[in-house]
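User: Design a sequence. Structure:
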């Protein structure tokens, strides 16, 4: 059962992720961006995702640490979507099997 605070946190993080993704394009849609500005706009959603998984860096749960390592390896070889899917799946499976 998910608590109200957890659900609210998930909804707010999803909203912030969506707003960072679409907000920049809406505000800057009629302007020509430099390569550096384009890189910043493309990195913003990844930064939000990093803030979500950052607490796992200080976790003492071996399942979380192992899932973090798997996700890190996936991030070095794959694009963002497969990395997120692998991270979520590995965290779920490892939390189920490792206690």
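Assistant: Done.
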């Amino acid at each position: 059962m998910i608590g109200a605070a957890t659900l609210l946190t998930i909804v707010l993080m999803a909203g912030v992720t969506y707003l960072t993704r679409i907000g920049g394009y809406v505000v800057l849609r009629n302007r020509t961006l430099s390569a550096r500005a384009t890189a910043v706009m493309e990195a913003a959603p990844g930064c939000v995702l990093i803030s979500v998984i950052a607490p796992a860096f200080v976790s003492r749960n071996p399942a979380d640490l192992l899932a973090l390592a798997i996700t890190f390896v996936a991030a070095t070889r794959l694009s963002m979507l497969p990395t997120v899917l692998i991270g979520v799946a590995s965290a779920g499976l490892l939390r189920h099997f490792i206690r």
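Residues 1-31 form one domain. The chain has two domains: 1-31, 44-98.
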